[in-house]
# Entry
Amino acid sequence: MRRRKFFTTGAIFSAYLSIWPASLLAGWSEKNFQRCTIEQAFVNAFGAREPVRSDKITIVAPPVAADGSAVPVQVISSLKGEEIYLFVEKNITPLVFKCTLKGNALPWFSLNVKMKESSALYAVVKEGGDYFMTSVHVDVLAQAC
Amino acid sequence: MSGIVRILAREESGIVQVKIIIPHPNESGTRKDELGIVVPAHFVREGSVKVNGAALLDIELGPSVSTDPFLQIRFPGKKGDVLNVTFLDNRNELFTAEAVVQ
# Structure
């Protein structure tokens, strides 16, 4: 029957559509990107492990940002990092990004970040199962969220 | 809604610097419009970058990324390397682009 055939192909096609884009990428962790405090965001991302302060990570950001809707932030590390995280303490969702380095990508990452208000930024780099971090403070004159 | 992802890849003394701009409203889901109604969340959530077919990095993004996300990455490479970039937003809209390192 023609109609039945149409339904089956339709079902297969929609299943394919729903699976394909999701399986193409690693998958987004809802838990990491919760609305919570910075302490809770750290626990969500790293569990019981606490990041150790290190001078091998650098955050390049303007000390005073005129516009909080796009603050250019660079995270540079001399560690051979596996993962890079960036947190904005006062944002509703503190975690900005989690970057998993594969192949020969350098631990160098730059992104324009939205900032709700003046806040500390934390960059965390994972190397060999340990987490290292550094922080800077950015003052925001015009807020965005 | 979906525009074209722009990629600029330049090689200089063995290091390729890649600039990626994704045209996207990137609404965090916490902003209110002029009438005080919360604008629903619509932001780029995840992405991956491949060089010559091999994975270079995966990224998960939160809502606190600016409108039209602008990313920059670096890797050791050469002119002629082919970059493939894929991004997915929270409405399952797919953004892809390909570029050759200059």
In short: The interface with chain A takes residues 15, 28, 30-31, 45-49, 51, 54-67, 69-76, 86, 88, 92, 94 of chain B (CB under 8 Å). The two ends of chain B are 29 Å apart (CA to CA).
